[in-house]
Protein 1
Amino acid sequence: MVNKLSLPKKIDLLPGPFGPKPRKKISQRNIIIYGTLLLVSVYYLLPLYVMVVTSLKGMPEIRLGNVFSPPLEIVLSPWVKAWSEACTGLNCDGLSRGFWNSVVITVPSVIISILVASVNGYALSNWRFKGADIFFTILIFGSFIPYQVMLYPIVIILREIGLYGKLGGLILVHTIFGMPILTLLFRNYFTSLPEELFKAARVDGAGFWRIYLRIMLPMSLPIFVVAIILQVTGIWNDFLFGVVYTKPENYPMTVQLNNIVNSVQGVKEYNVNMAATILTGLVPLVIYFVSGKLFVRGIAAGAVKG
Amino acid sequence: MSGKSRPNQLFRNLNAKIASIPMILTASVIFFGGTLWTIFYSFTNSKLLPRLKFVGFSQYERLWSTNRWLISIENLLIFGFLSLIFSLAIGFLLAVLMDQKIRFENTFRTIFLYPFALSFIVTGLVWQWILNPDFGIQKVVRSFGWDNFNFDPLYDAEIVIYGILIAALWQGTGLVMCIMLAGLRGIDQEIWNAAKIDGIPSWKTYLLIIIPMMRPVFVTTLVLITSGIVKVYDLVVAQTSGGPGIASEVPAKFVYDTMFLKQNLGQGFAGSTMMLLSVLIVLIPWAYLEFGGKKRG
Amino acid sequence: MPSVSVRGLSLNFGDVQVLRNLNIDIEEGEFLVLLGPSGCGKSTLLNCIAGLLDASDGQIFIKERNVTWEEPKDRGIGMVFQSYALYPQMSVEGNLSFGLKNARMPSDEITRRVIRAAEILQIEPLLKRKPSQLSGGQRQRVAIGRALVRDVDVFLFDEPLSNLDAQLRSELRVEIKRLHARLKNTMIYVTHDQIEALTLADRIAVMKGGVIQQLAAPQLIYNKPSNLYVAGFIGSPAMNFLPGQIVVSGEEASFTTKDGASISLQGYEASTSLRQGGEAILGVRPEHIQIHTEPIPGLTIPVTVEIDEPMGADSLLWLKFEQQSLSVRIDADLNCQEGTIYHLEFNIPKSSIFRKDTEERI
């Protein structure tokens, strides 16, 4: 309730400035800020533009023009060719083969790596046991070690358990290398949940798995989404593990793409190459544009280690 | 009494321990064990297959007299140094601009960050196309009249590493900007108010107050960028395949080629051990700074 | 000549009116406290005076100068923040001298001012230390010092003691009072703590919803609160409120409660006339009530003991009357059994009566 006594009659203002300070909308400061940002945006958007534009031109037009000129005549055949006819060293099935390989690699890898890491993160945050921290520290440190150092020992291990060259082997590798950041992500998230929930459940007699399934999981939807975004992007974009641990017919899309573009002798079909490049980048790009803020949250989690 | 407590210790939190088996195995067998294994075998004579014949430091001697390795190290140093400086500078400057309460912040951030969502292969290939001398930047500038303009990082051994640098910055600076922006936003608004009352101009506040306050963020970013630099592989494979010749060779590629294509495991192991060392040189001081104090307390 | 003047000051954040047409004249050397709960606009008002926020309408004058469009550094103010806002990587000396160095003051002048401020605030031994090596109380002194070295007319304080523990708070409260006595500068102080307000202020402005509810000296606010809100906000333990009617018969006025108990209003100093009668609320502070064992007609109301809260020197006795609980301050030694019936006499000259519809004091 507004007290009438405190709203005085309108007092005449004295001469001189009143109200907010007049500020120009188009000030020098704004020009510098927006100008710089726009210029930098050009640097970032240019490659995307070039990719799209090149993939829609016919080869004769490409030879005559330069990478920046827009297509005079839009052609869709490069896309078709990239998908189903482009030749790698081995066959001419196009990228479609690599696409399905990537799907077959990514889906199980994402599911398994996230399940394993989430249970692990839960164990670390709520059920501390002796030695847990030591192993976790080694895990995190390990994520900084260059992969090359561990490549060959893993080859040997996979050979021993009969998974070398098989899909299962690659899934295992992705689970292993996804563990540090995912476990960190889940551990931090579960630690931030109110401890009372957990304690109340224990008082009620619930055990490790029950609490995980009934209480933790339902409350963790946002962090699972972040984890999925991180893993799908990371695994889909992977090249090194794809090339080391699979046989050529199982190569993921990234490896196929590289083969199509870089190992073909003779006439380079730039438009097909660009179409193929876009196709390979499409899945993570779509995820990125759709997920927006969650994507940023995921990588921020990776950056804020320990 | 004591006899009873022993088995209990192991079975306490049994479920948690079972759940953590993957982490324990990964940390001990893969990360710790695998690294030791590689280092160990770098002192052997392994060729196509690992062999237990010790040859002391001869793999390393050979490594450091191999031209290809030396070039890869030189490239890594140039690339690493420039990458670090430019990423931090550009990332920080962009973050400062974005912190000015601008409109379209989300749009700009989306634009700066989308390259990070792409594979290095995609990045390498698209920049390979843009830097193409016949159709790309060189051609465009020449078509404006500067006939003598030369910018051919794909075929010019002297500047090829800069082509890779441009592509790497394109991919990575968005991330640095996001981290820096988060750091900037973590600074208490009252510090800004106090500086305003003191009459300190904006640029001075950034330089003398804000940046020193953000030291931890800079350090963390530095460690992140460094570990990424040492790993650079896909980008080189896609953009230049290490060429022209071996001019854009990098250690990660050298190691892979040596191990799997040249069937010289011993050299590969020596190379990867060297890579590990370079990371440890940065990692150990940082870990000591971050966690050393806490462990004592 | 007022030291600080605010005229017609309003501030909108979008659709929300945070400050409504405020007018205040602060005298030279006065210690004015802006008091209110969070969200009442007190910090916003302070930030407008400081120049950290632009007002949507109105003017601000400091020492007769219209500073409405001036930058904070040109307004002749110094400010102390709730979180101290010390520059973390500079020493105490660095913190104190940074603004002066930026203004290109000659270094001997800077040194003179820094030493003088350090002396007044007793932080000389701390000059070489960094903020992280200081305690909360020491940090706050440095923050005050930073405003001191600016040699300004007006000091602004934004809840400076809120981050300190209770003991430090009372220590520094006295320090600030001593500082004001010594320097005699105009000081504008924002707080939500009424103890700080009552002990430090020459005048208090009680604020709510962007409006000043009452602007007066502490004793006046305590004894004659201008509306129901101020009456309930100031004073701990809080004032008791009894709803009822003012009944006028001839020259006498009395207050009748819902269930018919009647209390004479003789001795009440009304600012407007009691003759209007009507529904009203009677407000009495716990220390202004006396307990009788026998009823006195026309003067007391019957109550039943509920519970007793011992508070050291006194106790707070809670008694049930009609549908509500009343609190009375009694001596700690008195033992009151639950269920006992007593009769309360109110100190009418020290009470306040508020109209039910406007909530203003009669």
Protein 2
Amino acid sequence: MPPLTARRLWVSIGLLSAGFAACVAVCASIGSTHHTLLDLLRQAPGGETAAATILRIRLPRILMAALAGAALGASGAVFQAVLRNPLADPFILGVSGGAALGAFLATAAGLQALAPLLPVREAAAFLGASATVGSLFLLSSAGGRLLSYPMLLIGVIMNTVYLALILLIETVVDFTRLHGVRLWMIGSIPIEGYGLISGLSVLLVLGVAGLSLSGRDLNLMSAGEDAARSLGVTVERTRLVTVLLASLITAAVVSVAGPIGFVGLIVPHAARLVFGPDHRLLVPASALTGAIFLMAADTAARTVMAPTEIPVGVITALCGGPFFLWLYRRQGGGGYFE
Amino acid sequence: MSDPRAAGDPILSVHGVRFRHHGAAAALFEDLSLAVAPGEFLGVIGPNGSGKTTLLRLLAGVAEPAGGEVRLAGRPIRAIAPPERARQVAVVFQEARVLFNFSVLEIALMGRAPRLGRWGMERPEDFAAARAALLEMDLAGQEDRHLHELSSGERQRALIARALAQEPRIVLMDEPTAFLDLKHRLQIYAILTRLNRDRGLTVIATSHDLNLAARYGSRLVLLHRGRVAADGPPASVLTAARIREVYETEARVERDAATGAPYVVPIAPVR
């Protein structure tokens, strides 16, 4: 693939945005009742139910799925570059788990009820994610260098511990609600108000833009920390800024939708195959691809077995697992992952 | 034009530098000083663990000394903004794994980053510089290949092309020819010699190949246990007695009839 040019950057983002809009329209027209966007636009008889279904139920959920997919896709691309590990993603590293534990503790302790207007749950999720990232850096660095594989191992362990803690606390505190937490822990997209959705959208657009602007530094860091330094990157600063931003957007969506796996891992790899490895395009492309992927997955989750819902995390894992294995074999059995 | 070697002030220098590896019991450098004049072709030699790579990292400004100072053209290197430093000093590290499916051309273009605004895209002159560097490194037909598909020698040449695309005043190389075959080994030193002669590029290269270092370097620095054991023209540095002491190897030192450079024939390790 030829190197990135301004033209290819904007054409790709334009095409992805068009795909995103089309996906919103299609997903909004699919559901257990046969209302489509066209009914809404034509103001046909029964248009009011169509409007209610689409605007109050389907659309908020579609947009929430898009936000979650965008955040996980973009932060996965960033974690993989900054930690120099193609297996890094917010779920595997325990960042999602840390955010989930934070959000869960805030809810279980009733903190949200104390200040209903403040984003307490989101703040607690961000604290949990940041604490996880901080511990990851501390535990897996030696002599000022990050050790990639130990970091992955530590992340996997932390993630397992977090999820066990959530289940334990829930069992002790309120046995009857365990089922709900289980669903949340594998990731499911709730129907939220437009207020929360707009707030998250602003956060995400700013976050993804900020991360994309670090794109060239992320390219150089893919070539190694010393190489990046010798090419003029202030590695410590870039790492701090990008990891904090990626954790922030991850935490924001995990606090709402739970720790959805696989999106942050496979979306950047898929986007890299299509759009190339340059992070100036890869970060926004992973955000848009992630949004499209999770919207489609969530639409499948709520329709294929309707009226029973499948947790969206089940769909992403079922699609993601085989895709990842295919990708791994396609790359010559791992030369690319060494 | 005057001979750049005659220029007085050093372009790169270390002054009383102290450095200890993380977790190491003893310091590697206690009080190391060294000055490199503009336009020099300096070979840094020494046995394993003598501090060659660390010296290079300190000179490149990517490692910080615990004491003392590294200066670039008289200014403390830590006071120079990293992109400005990168426009003057390029480095080819020995262990250079590049993640993801970057192509050879993209790797060479990375050398242009210090010359672009933070968010600017590469300009036509950046593509020209990257392609010229690839041409010099015999990689002109390979620009679309992915780095992980290349042989280790091709990969090394791609990374050297990145350094050349930086158009630096100084290039630091850690064992630049370690993975290369005979042809490309000589080719890289020939290119460095030409850039050194024609453009006054200052070259500092570490090497385990004493004969290559002696043939191309105008000056050799022999490191031994974190100290400069010898420093001067190749013929004065490479003596049988010093090789026995520093490398613990019996060797015969001859003179290459064609180049006039000393030529080391190792015989046996000293017991």
Protein 3
Amino acid sequence: MNPVPTQAVCRSVLADGAMLTVTATRRPRDGRAEVKCGGAGDARLAARMAEVVRLARHTEPRYDSRDQVVLSIDRAPAEGERDWELALVLADRMVRGLWHPRGEVVANGWSDDWQRGRVDGHALRAAAAAALASPVLGGAGGLAHLGQLLGHPDPGAAVSSARAWFPLHSGGAFDSLGWVEVGVHPLLRDGGASEEEEQLIAVPGFDAARQHAVRQALAGARHFDPRGQGRWRTTVAFGPGQIQGRSWELALVLADRIARGREFLPRGRIVATGCSDAWHAGRVDTVDGLAPKCALLLREAAPGDRILLPRAWQDSLPPGFAAGVAAAGASLACVERIGII
Amino acid sequence: MIGFFKRAAPLADACALGRSAVALPLRASCAAPPSCPVVIVDASGRTRRSTSAAGKPVVLRDGEQAWAYHPGPYTVDIVPFAQAPEIGLRTSFAVDALEPVAQQRFDLYLAAEVDGRLELDALARAIEAALQRELAQGQLALPPCTTIEEWNAFRQGFNQLLYMRFGLSVDDCVPADLGGQRDYASALAARAAAQPAGAPLDLAPAVAVLPGDAVLAPLAGRFEPALIDAQSLRRLFLELPCLMCGLRLAALPSGQALFRRQQSLLQRLDLLSVGAGTMPALALAAPGQALEAQEQLRRARHSRRATLALDEAWALLARMRGGGRSGRDEPIDDVRLAALYDDAERIVANLEADCAARREPRAQQEAA
């Protein structure tokens, strides 16, 4: 079981290059305010911090009035600087067990629309961002809204995009989860000029062979779906990390189905591995690397996550894997086909 | 002429009953259509069933309201996730038409939440909201590529939820492709058209600029403090005693520790129930002293939030009724019951916080 922490830390880079640390502590409320903020001695900053946190909490489905969260920052940002807001919101979520990142988090981002969970942008320079391991950056191209942390589409945006994760196996020590994001734009057809489905799928930054593989898988899976074709212009983006083989296909197909609003949503992330030679029939075939991928999935499973594996793996799962996944609060299914039962 | 042979006035719009409307208000001297039971709610919110024979006018005393409802069955499409509008659940449900032994949940729903007609659309939206909330909180799970065991567990939870929350029994529920009725692509295109193209993303002084009257006018109709507050307090007043009763019956605590927790929950609910009955008037800060509109709005928001906690409490009772992990017949084990009581304590704490804030004439500055 993942116990809910009582303290969480999130960092942010200031404009002058210094590192700001947000510390969140949870304690029984005992008749005190639900959020208490310490703004490094600045009362106006503390008031703005409390406002940001309260607004961002509007997007949460569950309200608990029994806890007080104390948030403090260790140095005051310059006047008018707002990039610390995202780190504050994330620390507030981490300390209440709503988001379970692995390792240290550095986040930069500001928003005028926290009550809808949107993150408008960040002011971090590219050079400073490149020096960090994996910062969470707000704004387009990064974290555009808070639900994206779990791969969910923004319920109010005009572009629907969903993310799914897949295990990247690279020999043990550097195994990690990679992600793929599918964004769909409605296609406004003015009659005629019908393009091939595959021409409407763009994978920027990929060579021709890999682009072809992505298009093949997506077009096949949309063929399986009665209302998949000819309605969308699609952009596919992969996370950092070297991608080998085809085991990302299932994650890609599921992210596409979620982005098009035709699949149930998990409460947390989707973590899937699997490929297929017959996406047009919705079939899921087996992939290699059962043992290391299962070990990785067991390490990475967080509450609410949905883990999808090929059916062929069902009988050879390592002992205790299913129990371990359930104990982490995630759910597991070995699937033969995609789509509704 | 004494009205021996006078025929009862027919219910206006009775054709809609059973099709687009679930329940219609009934005036005195109206007769309910055949096979439609009549629920009568008295001035203090107690419900009873009409005993007049079919086709005879309903007899109402002072301050009583009556509804005739059609037991159904009804079929509606429910969208379980707001972000996935093209996949839904085709659900058919019915209202129990038999003469109840005790008060039925559906009668309480009519008495506490329904004002005038109960349209099928409105009921479907309420069901959808209740389901979406349970799914978002993780108490029901409907993940991608649902397996048959997960589907069965979901169905059981969904049946219990609709029964405890609305008094409806689900006949059938199957996943359905709603792509033919709801086009997500055109919905997204409409959203894109509604947003101003190339909206400036710089730091606009959003706080200083007040929206014009054109923006405020439609909002004013949506949140009318006096109306919302009255509806919410009615729900609190009528539903809290029933919730206590449900909590007492739902699960038998085993062991001293759990028993103490149940007793303290019941005690706190009892105090809340008394508090709901003695809530100060919305528009008065003190006897004879009016309260400014801004504070009235704050009070109404708190009573509205208290009703959300009530919804969660009914969903919690549904989970308690659902029994152990493998189904209804298995008793709830201690670990699960402790977790359910923990959630109950959260809900009661939220209720207490909102009711206390509703009572205060001005927002309290809490100690940090």
